[in-house]
């Protein structure tokens, strides 16, 4: 009997005191609810976009191009798709995209490095040293120190030629290159000297050019070194005013 009485009394006290306890602690419940909303309602959403390595392309352009927005659900974002889309741009050589599930996307970009201005029928286009077109340009002053390339269909020949040409000191004096007849190069260097190279034996022709330019009697006098028939023949044209 006593046990039953105590049990009934306990149940009665719980019924009476529970509403009081709830009302007293309602403020704490509100705080807990607000904390949960503020910290978990946006869980899984994009909070920040970090882009590294972009110099030719602005961050604003890139974010618009890949078409992702702050607040977008992370499960709707594919790093692979972003990477493939970025690689469609001529300016970008490689890209790495990763998602941090705290809501941060990191995009690391390797842009193509401008080597020269291709003067394509009066339409200047930046190209890298592998012959890849990067972008059309309107501000030539910005790239005034770059080599200028004339001619057509040189793109898959440029890297092979430059890998050979870089072995010679003349490379550092180059002002412009002219790819002629889809088969050979003319090189324009400092002091208004033109070197007409043959189709083959380019390395020995470049070596011969350096030897000629180092000879005292030809110093500052040469206008053209014609090596198109080298090693059989070599022709020199001197400047008219010297």
Strand content: 25-35%
CATH class of the largest domain reads Alpha Beta
CATH topology name of the largest domain: Rossmann fold
How many domains comprise the coordinates? 2
Shape verdict: elongated
Class from helix and strand fractions: alpha/beta
The biggest beta sheet, please?
9 strands, mixed
Number of helices: 6
Radius of gyration of CA atoms, rounded to a whole number: 35 Å
**Ranges with pLDDT <50 over ≥5 residues?**
none
- Distance from first to last alpha carbon: 132 Å
What is the N-to-C succession of helices and strands? Answer: HHEHHEEEEEEHEEEHEE
**Beta strand count:** 12
| Sheet with most strands: strand arrangement | 6-5-4-7-8-9-10-11-12
Helix content range of the residues, please?
25-40%
Domain Cell division protein FtsQ/DivIB C-terminal: 119-228
Pfam families: FtsQ_DivIB_C, POTRA_1
Protein name: FtsQ-type POTRA domain-containing protein
Domain POTRA: 46-112
Structure, described:
Keywords: Cell cycle, Cell division, Cell inner membrane, Cell membrane, Membrane, Transmembrane, Transmembrane helix. Pfam families: FtsQ_DivIB_C, POTRA_1. This is FtsQ-type POTRA domain-containing protein. The protein folds into 2 domains: 67 residues, Ubiquitin-like (UB roll) (Roll), CATH 3.10.20.310; 123 residues, Rossmann fold (3-Layer(aba) Sandwich). By secondary structure, the chain is α/β, with parallel strands linked by helices.
């Amino acid at each position: 009997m006593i046990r039953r009485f105590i049990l009934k009394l306990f149940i009665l006290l719980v019924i009476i005191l529970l509403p009081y306890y709830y009302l007293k602690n309602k403020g704490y419940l509100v705080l807990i609810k607000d904390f949960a909303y503020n910290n978990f309602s946006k869980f899984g959403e994009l909070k920040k976009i970090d882009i590294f390595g972009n110099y030719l392309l602005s961050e604003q352009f890139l974010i618009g191009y890949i078409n992702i927005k702050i607040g977008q659900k992370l499960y709707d974002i594919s790093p692979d798709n972003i990477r493939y889309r970025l690689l469609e741009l001529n300016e970008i050589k490689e890209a790495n995209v990763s998602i941090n599930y705290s809501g941060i996307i990191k995009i690391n970009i390797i842009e193509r490095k401008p080597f020269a201005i291709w003067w394509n029928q009066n339409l200047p286009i930046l190209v890298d040293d592998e012959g890849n077109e990067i972008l059309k340009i309107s501000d030539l002053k910005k790239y005034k120190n770059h080599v200028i390339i004339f001619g057509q269909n040189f793109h898959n020949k440029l890297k092979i030629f430059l890998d050979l040409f870089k072995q010679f000191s003349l490379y550092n004096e180059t002002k412009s290159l002219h790819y002629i007849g889809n088969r050979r190069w003319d090189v324009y260097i400092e002091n208004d000297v033109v070197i007409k190279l043959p189709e083959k034996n380019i390395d020995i022709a470049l070596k011969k050019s350096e030897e000629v330019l180092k000879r005292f009697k030809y110093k500052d006098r040469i206008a053209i070194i014609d090596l198109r028939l080298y090693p059989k023949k070599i022709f020199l044209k001197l400047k008219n005013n010297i």
